[in-house]
Amino acid sequence: MTQVLDSKSKNGPLSNSLDSAHPSVRIIKEKCAGCQECVTRCPVGALDMDPHKWVALADSSICVGCRQCERTCPYGAIHVAGPMIVGPSGPLNLYHPKGLIGDVTEIRQGFTSWDEAIAEANRCLDCPDPTCMLGCPAHNAIPDFIAAIRAKDLNAAHAVLEKTSMWPDACSRVCDWKTQCEGSCTWSLAGGEPVAIGRLERFITDQMAVKDIEVTSDAAKGITVAIVGAGPAGLSAATQLVKAGAAVTIYERDRNTGGVMSWGIPSYVLPDQIVDRPIESLIKAGVTLKTGVALGRDIHIEDLKKQYSAVILTHGASTPIKLPLPGVDLAGVEDATYFLTNAKSELAKEKPEAIYDGANVVVLGAGNTAMDVARSARRLGAKVIAIDWMKEEFAKVRPDEIQEARDEGVKVNFGNTVESIVGQNGVVAGVVIRTTTQKSASQLPRLTKEPGTTHHCDKVILAMGYRVEDLGEAKLPKLPHPPQKPKGPIPDRRWIGSGILNSPYTKVGNLALARESMLEDARLPISDGIWAAGDVLVGPSTVVSAMAQGREAARALIEALSSPKSKKK
Amino acid sequence: MTSTLENESKEANTLKNGQPRPVKVELFSSERRRPPKKAGMEQHFGPTDPKIDALKLPVIGKPLTKLFKSRPFQFMMILPNQAIFWIVIIGGIIGGSYAMPAGENNFGTVITWFIWFCLIFIMIVGVGRAWCMMCPFGGFAEWVQRHTFWKRTIKPITANWKWPEKMAKFGILPAVGTFIFLTWIEEFFNIAGPGYPIFTSLMVLGIVATALTVMLLFERRTFCRYLCPLTGLIGSAGATGMVAGFRTRDRDKCLACQTKDCMRGSEKGYGCPWFEWPGSASSNLMCGLCTECMKNCPEDNVGLFLQPPLTSVIKPDRRRTDVGIAVVALLGLVVFQQFNALSPYQSLDNWLNSHTGFQFGAYGYPNPIDYLGIIALAALVPLLLTGIITLLVAKKTTTQVTETKDSGPRVVPSSGGVALLEAPVAQSTTKTVKTSQFKTWFVALAYGIIPLMASDYLARQLPKFLSNSPRIIAAISDPFDKGWNLFGTAKLHIANQHILLGNGVVVVQMVVVGIGLLASLYATNKIVKNELVQVSKNALATRAITLLYVLALGVAVGGLYYPMHAAF
Ligand SMILES: Cc1cc2nc3c(=O)[nH]c(=O)nc-3n(C[C@H](O)[C@H](O)[C@H](O)COP(=O)(O)OP(=O)(O)OC[C@H]3O[C@@H](n4cnc5c(N)ncnc54)[C@H](O)[C@@H]3O)c2cc1C
Ligand code: SF4
Ligand code: SF4
Ligand code: SF4
Ligand code: SF4
Fold first, then answer.
1. In the prediction, which pLDDT does B412 show?
2. Which of A154, A252, B291, B470 is the most buried (most CB within 10 A)?
């Protein structure tokens, strides 16, 4: 069945009837400068040039209403009205745990059949200037792997992914697609329902395992590199370097590799075998892994510099942010790292026990970390309230994740904050909760005059976020230096031209552009022979950004060290 | 293709520690953007493409390029004009304006009406929009909009509105409207008479204020393209000029270009303020010669092209109906200005005023009814005549009109080769209908009379210039009528001399119109040969009747100068 989406009401089918109007494309001939920017971008070939007047010509009967032309035209000479012609997106296939306790089955199951995947792939327009690729922090060639799915060619699909991503099986599980690839899909930019890029990427890795690493060039032959931290940034840098023939040693403080993905992100989101896959394959490819070795404690930058041709710092942002709350030092107040590590090891047991059975747990925060804490606590038998001082509409959270948590019985209260933690005999007994107001996303929330209410609880978990640990390596430039704005006064005109920045429905383009400047930062060495990537460079961000930055730092390193100039030196 | 940001500045390419900046992710693969291979492209950029690139000429090419690429260039061009017009404004306000009704010695009135208005025409006819490049009105407003004199700033001070689609359809016609309105104001207050200098200064202030307001509300130079009183005249009359404007040298580079910095702007300059694309410009109609595109182009692919006179009249690739209508309306306006110097007009105006009660003390000329009436009548003449010509010699043609109706499901192809989904099928029925040729003929022939119209404007300004321009010599020494003698030229006898008077002026006027007429005949002949003969019943008859029409029109407007006796 065909559905027609109304461009004005944010997604959601407007009507199922086939006789509702076509999109109509109007060109203001007087304003059209004849640049063909629209013509080269129209995915269905609905635009052409008038050979005599050299202005754009539209065939509305072919148009699917994606509005790329409207977004790209430098002079606003083209307008599209009417519905978007695209079917509804395929099923989410969410798993709803019944018993919950100890259940670590994956929640987001992705597409379960070729039919579902191909139907979704057919929603993709194979855009000539794919904005989804700009939205993906790793710049995966999305339309190419979608085309490979349509052709049922898994080898080709993997080959596409391999060029840009070493962890597609993880990204397609933990990414926040709505602010990345899917948010930048042309349908999203037009206010419609995007192609389910994340689920398609995952479908590829579900159907065929990611292949082992192969050495494909000798561009980095003879180069030795030390990588500090085995999170996504570090592992991705290592992959890139190994492929080019470099000798890589990874130093990791923990016993496990994977960083946050190993101790933090729960297995019902990201199964353990996916976390472990890359390091196994890296070791097979000859990488030396040294676990239990910490920078600043067991090794030092100066020594690494002497020992290796170059160093890449990817040790993440692992210091939890601690609020100066009254009562924060009481027993029963924990940080998210501690809690998640314990919870994960309990849940990893064959028969996990409800170790928090009946306990009242208060989680501070409603972001990624907080929801992982809350949902893990639920799986271990606790009653959970998550408290966030932002208003729900302004909070930088994943709505789908909040919804999943709520479905699992987590109470998520936005517009609230904890004023103090109350104790009895040095142990947590409750929290005093105050309400807040917030007028806009840019404004910080304020306390209302309403008096605080006391909520009884047995545990308080602080999950407000992380910052970069101060290792006392004084000689390094100050880290992190998160770039707030894209470099240069004007964003790259290819970005403007793609139309990603001109959507009236979403600001996803600005986010993507900011990520681009972080990628650029990762390419720059922080001092001679030292690169940094991931959370340690830009502050807490995402798995895929860390991974892409690791890749770019490695590429830059190879380029710098293998250039003839530096060889002479 | 490499990105612009990469090619940008040298310092951005090397880092603090001297290492080369690594290359960007190869993300924007050019294969994906399928470059169109369209029929018509060759022809579009073919025959009219001007061949001479002023920036590649020996000796002057390099210094010119350097000059145009420097950011302060346009500011330097605007500055002198800006200074002059602020003196005009101030002079009108503080000068001895009320004491001297005929501001014949006031700097403001002298320079505006005796000199500037005439020079601007010569410039238009010769160059095109050279005035726009140095215009102090738009220039001033643009300084405010960009909050800088010449630097590249990022956030303009403007509400950034787009010119409404409904208005854009009319092209330059609203601007012709503002010109007709302003001319009426000018006549009513006898500003260019010249009358009280204060009126001149208020008028200039009014233009500056309007330009500023529009620039603060609308994006880029919307004012200059769509509303400026002079833009219709400069744009259409400028078609005779020898400067084709800034255009690209190698079209293939433009087609492969991924950034279109000329339109979108870069670190080096603003995107075209005039909404042009140097890659496709095929007439000099809307290029404001601001040099921004050549500053921006990362491929150094923009040149300043020269063309033989009349090229943009004879063969712009894109004839515009709004320009056609503008030409006849502007012709109507200048004919009114000729007519108003004749005595029958005085009686008509007085008679109308007494019957309509349009008299306010000394002010009552021109009555809006006869003003607009005469313009309309005069504009109707070429309109009617081209109508008759079309009836007589145009071939009757038919076209296939396709009507589409939706019915049943349809398949939208996706590039993966798989059907996207089902959607309504457009079923078309084709009918043959007779089509009117009038628009084609009218627009083409209206372009043909552009030189005549332009020469008529020039001739109309000549009496003031030829008799009174030397007064500027005195006026510069005493710009505000204060009895000063700044340069010792205030009392010079020569300032009261006339270059020509009386019959001498009439002769020059007729010669000017004569040249315009010849140019129009030449252009019309070419246009007819290129575009109209093919759609006519008889080639010879077509050429004869169109030339006869232009000749008659020329003789009529030129002939009017005789009874006008070189009137101001
Ligand atoms: C609970 C939680 C949930 C998250 N959920 C998501 C999600 O769903 N999706 C998403 O995209 N992002 C999520 N994130 C963010 C994401 O995990 C991080 O942005 C990403 O892992 C950063 O990668 P990294 O390689 O820079 O650092 P990390 O993953 O932090 O890896 C750093 C590694 O360095 C090691 N290390 C630290 N200090 C030293 C030292 N001194 N010497 C040696 N080794 C050291 C650490 O042990 C660790 O293995 C989450 C973060 C948290 C905390
Ligand atoms: S992008 Fe705009 S100006 Fe360029 S051809 Fe299309 S409609 Fe015309
Ligand atoms: S809306 Fe999309 S499909 Fe329609 S003409 Fe524009 S670019 Fe083509
Ligand atoms: S996923 Fe969306 S933006 Fe990307 S190519 Fe397909 S339709 Fe275009
Ligand atoms: S940017 Fe170029 S095309 Fe546009 S007005 Fe200026 S000089 Fe002319």
1. 45
2. A252
Residue B266 at interface with chain A, using a CB cutoff of 8 Å? yes
B22/A555 Cβ within 8 A: yes
Q: Could you give the percent of chain B with pLDDT greater than 70? A: 81
Q: What mean pLDDT is predicted for residues B459-480?
A: 77
Q: Does residue B230 lie within any of the structural domains?
A: yes
**Count of domains forming chain B:** 3
Task: Evaluate the CA torsion angle B274, B278, B284, B289 in order and state its sign.
Answer: positive
Residues B137 and B276 in one domain: no
Chain B residues 1-40 with a CB less than 8 Å from chain A: 3-5, 8, 15, 17, 19-25, 27-28, 32-36, 38-40
**Same structural domain for residues B77 and B200?**
yes
Instruction: Characterize B126-149 residue by residue with b for buried, 16 or more Cβ atoms within 10 angstroms of its Cβ, and e for exposed.
Output: ebbbbbbbbbbbbbbbbbebbeee
Q: Which of B44, B74, B87, B242 is nearest to B152 (CA)?
A: B74
Task: Give chain B positions within 8 Å (CB) of A157.
Answer: none
Give me the sign of the Cα torsion angle A212, A216, A220, A221: positive
pLDDT digits 0-9 by tens, B398-420? 776 666 554 433 444 444 333 44
Which residues in chain A have Cβ-Cβ distances shorter than 8 Å to B417? 150
Least CB–CB distance from B277: residue in A33, A489, A490:
A33
Res B22: pLDDT:
36
| Residue B465, domain extent | 70-234+321-338+377-390+443-564
pLDDT value at residue A230: 96
Inside any domain, residue B436: no
Which of A26, A55, A57, A502 best tests ligand 2's pocket when mutated (most atoms within 8 Å of CB)? A55
Domains of chain A: 14-81 (3.30.70.20), 114-207 (1.10.1060.10), 224-317+468-561 (3.50.50.60), 325-467 (3.50.50.60)
What does the alpha-carbon distance between residue A553 and residue A402 come to, in Å, rounded to a whole number? Answer: 34
Measured in Å, residue A318 CA sits from the centre of ligand 1 at 7
Residue B397's pLDDT is 75
d(CA B551, CA B555): 6
pLDDT digits (tens, 9 = 90+) for B41-66: 665 555 456 678 999 999 999 999 99
Banded model confidence at residue A364, pLDDT cuts 50, 70, 90: very high
User: Best substitution site from A177, A260, A291 to test ligand 1's pocket, by max atoms within 8 Å of Cβ?
Assistant: A260
Same domain, B260 and B226: no
Using the mean position of ligand 2's atoms as its centre, give its distance from the Cα of residue B322 in Å: 20
Say how far apart CA B381 and CA B384 lie, in whole Å.
5
CB contact (8 A) between residue B263 and residue A75: yes
